[in-house]
Write a structure and sequence with these properties.
α4 packs antiparallel against α7, α13 crosses α18 and α17 runs antiparallel to α18. 51% of the residues are buried. Strands 4, 7, 8, 9, 10, 11, 12, 13 and 14 form a nine-stranded mixed β-sheet that branches. Strands 15, 16, 17, 18, 19, 20, 28, 29 and 32 form a nine-stranded mixed β-sheet that branches. The protein has a five-stranded mixed β-sheet with strand order 5-6-22-27-21, with helices on one face. It folds into three domains: 185 residues, Phosphoenolpyruvate Carboxykinase, domain 1 (3-Layer(aba) Sandwich), CATH 3.40.449.10; 229 residues, Phosphoenolpyruvate Carboxykinase, domain 3, CATH 3.90.228.20; 79 residues, Phosphoenolpyruvate Carboxykinase, domain 2 (Beta Complex), CATH 2.170.8. β16 and β17 form a beta hairpin. It is of the alpha+beta class and 651 residues long. The structure holds oxalic acid (OXD) and manganese (II) ion (MN).
């Protein structure tokens, strides 16, 4: 028996009945059985003439997963998502009726919606994220670990009955293009229609996907409950979620299983993203000989029409989206995007490393995004966009800090309160926009290439006021892995912590995303060299757009001007320019860094490309201390790199 909870009787009720019929599976015949009053809503009960599940898939694993979860979660209704436009419209209408979403002014922002989360549920919760590997050792020092049996027992009791009064949505989704040999499948069960709508933009999702999962194929079961069952008569808040100490974002790496409870926000709830495509995928990648990375992918075309592809890993708040959507200030140089967050990398038949973006959308941070900083993001989010926790203008459009100066004189802030020229941000610092990547005007045509694109260079970055020069290249693959392992960034105000200004080590920008022991992860990176010829692997670079002068001012102009650094990297990969061999890596000769038409003094350029041995000796001490956390699991190769660096600095 299927049922759909609909808003109270209204003159429109008839149309809801027809919508309710339409949301059933294509070609599936339903008969109305009757109405039931439920919690101020009318529940229209349908009986299906054929077993619904069997019409959708014969995959026994999927059928068992759904039926076992249904028995545990006890939803009022089960809905298998087809990913259609009609289904999305039905869900959004329902959410608007329930006061959980706001339709933005269709003239200004067609088919776009604003959601406001509960103020306690605004970001990924790293301290509630667990890697429940069989042993604590396998989770390593960078993850929270819990015994899987204990965790499952705790979560099973939380899950029991947690979807009462709600609909369980079955979301079949794919990470990667369906025709790619590297595509991976997931089935997410959720009680959040907001999650369904976001997953529809962030992943390939719905009918085609479930059809593609053949009976012999594996999938990652992803269970998600907001943790807010509705008893009869209970009010449904506009953003159901559980208190912080009941939130659990958990991964069972040996079983390739994801369980998430209590949060409806971002990476906690859109399980295809960080949970699957990084934490679980990093385990799959280790076992299968590839890399699952927190990286953007870009295509660069030089004035001669030569093309190269690059990936880049940057911690939060280091301009990753900006780089993914960069508009070049150098004539003839073009940047196109293939992804802004995740890359899966494999060695191809020709021995080169290929990257594929498993995602289908952007889940971008709104504050700071503007015509000036990220011009491409503006048309990208001009329609068909889901906004979360941004401010609402009087004209029914969205606003966030940095979008325009000055701010509009009146707004409704992300908490739904009137806002007038207040120092408190109107948009939450982690407010987001969700859009399909295909809406990006700077999208490279080969973004869905089944094999991915061959990578010439890997960029590691961070936000450092000093120490790291504007750009440097590693001496070798092993030295590049050392670069990745020591990546660090200064904590910014956007990160809501008390450690403002302190340096946080974030190896490979994967600190919260490595699904196993980080020491083994470094070893896995090192091992890639054994699977191909060293010369075929990408060159590895470290970049830093954020050096400051004595007056605490950024020296490098950044944004679109970063193309000048990319140009040097491109030319290094092409063997067109030589470099200074310094203790820390290869650095540009000043003449090879194109600074034409920039108002940089010679002194500033020298400073940007400087290696200060005193600062670097301190850095070496800091790396030594940081490396201790990996104990004897730290690969010897990295210790060797560190001691070689130390020796070179003393010369
Ligand atoms: C993200 C993140 O949301 O890295 O992409 O936190
Ligand atoms: Mn990210």
């Amino acid at each position: 028996m299927n049922s759909l909870i609909l808003p109270n009787f209204s003159p429109k009720c008839k149309s809801y009945v027809s919508i309710a019929k339409d949301v059933s599976w294509r070609g599936l015949h339903t008969k109305r059985k009757g109405f039931q009053k439920h919690n101020g809503y009318v529940k229209i009960v349908f009986v299906t003439t054929k077993g619904e599940m069997n019409r959708m898939t014969t995959h026994q694993g999927i059928l068992d997963f759904v039926s076992e979860a249904t028995a545990l979660l006890q939803p009022t209704h089960v809905h298998w998502c087809d990913g259609s436009e009609k289904e999305a419209e039905t869900l959004i209408d329902l959410l608007i009726q329930e006061g959980k979403a706001i339709r933005l002014n269709p003239t200004l922002r067609p088919n776009s919606f604003l959601f406001r989360s509960d103020p306690s549920d605004v970001a990924r919760v790293e301290n509630r994220t667990f890697i429940a590997s069989k042993t604590k050792r396998d989770a390593g020092p960078t993850n929270n670990w819990m015994d899987p049996k204990e965790l499952k027992a705790t979560m099973t009791s939380l899950y029991r009955g947690s979807m009462k009064g709600r609909t369980l949505y079955v979301i079949p989704f794919a990470m990667g293009p369906l025709r790619s040999p590297f595509v991976k499948y997931g089935i997410q069960l959720t009680d959040s229609p907001y999650v369904v709508l976001n997953m529809r933009y962030m992943t390939r999702m719905g009918f085609e996907v479930i059809q593609a999962i053949q009976p012999h194929m594996s999938f990652v079961p992803c269970l998600h409950s907001s943790g807010y069952p509705l008893e009869v008569g209970q009010m449904d808040p506009s953003w159901p979620c559980a208190p912080i100490d009941q939130k659990y974002i958990t991964h069972f790496p040996e079983e390739r299983l994801i369980w998430s409870y209590g949060s409806g926000y971002g990476g906690n709830a859109l399980l295809g993203k960080k949970c699957f495509s990084l934490r679980i995928a990093s385990v799959l990648a280790r076992d299968e000989g590839w890399l699952a990375e927190h990286m953007l992918i870009i295509k660069i075309t030089n004035p001669e029409g030569k093309v190269k592809y690059f990936t880049g890993a940057f911690p939060s708040a280091c301009g990753k989206t900006n780089l993914a959507m960069l508009i070049s200030t150098l004539p003839g140089w073009k940047v196109e995007t293939l992804g802004d967050d995740i890359a899966w990398l494999r060695i191809g038949k020709d021995g080169r490393l290929y990257a594929m973006n498993p995602e289908f959308g952007f889940f971008g941070v709104a504050p700071g995004t503007s015509e000036k900083t990220t011009p491409i993001a503006m048309p990208t989010s001009s329609k068909d966009t889901i906004f979360t926790n941004v401010a609402l203008t009087d004209g029914g459009d969205v606003w966030w800090e940095g979008l325009t100066k000055p701010a509009p004189s009146h707004l409704v802030d992300w908490k739904g309160q009137d806002w007038k020229n207040s120092p408190t941000p109107a948009a939450h610092p982690n407010s987001r926009f969700t859009v399909k990547i295909s809406q990006c005007p700077a999208l490279a045509s080969e973004w869905e290439s089944p094999e991915g694109v061959p990578i010439s260079g890997i960029l590691f970055g961070g936000r450092r006021s000093d120490t790291i020069p504007l750009v440097m290249e590693s001496h070798s693959w092993q030295h590049g892995v050392f670069f990745g392992s020591i990546m660090a960034s200064e904590i910014t105000a956007a990160q809501i912590t008390n450690d403002y200004g302190k340096v946080r080590r974030d190896p490979f920008a994967m600190l919260p995303f490595i699904g196993y022991h980080a020491g083994d992860y470094f070893a896995h990176w090192l091992s890639m060299e054994r699977h191909t010829e060293a010369a075929l692997l990408p060159k590895i670079f470290m970049v830093n757009w954020f050096q400051k002068d004595e007056n605490n001012q950024y020296i490098w102009p950044g944004f679109g001007e970063n193309i000048r650094v990319i140009k040097w990297i491109f030319e290094r990969c092409d063997g067109q320019v030589s470099a200074r061999d310094e203790a820390i890596g290869y650095l540009p000769y000043q003449k090879d860094l194109d600074t034409s038409h920039l108002s940089l003094t010679n002194h500033q350029i020298t400073r940007l490309l400087d290696v200060n041995p005193i600062i670097w000796r301190k850095e070496v001490d800091s790396i030594e201390t940081y490396y201790q956390m990996f104990e004897e699991e730290l690969p010897n190769e990295l210790l060797q790199e560190l001691s070689d660096l130390k020796a070179r600095l003393l010369k």
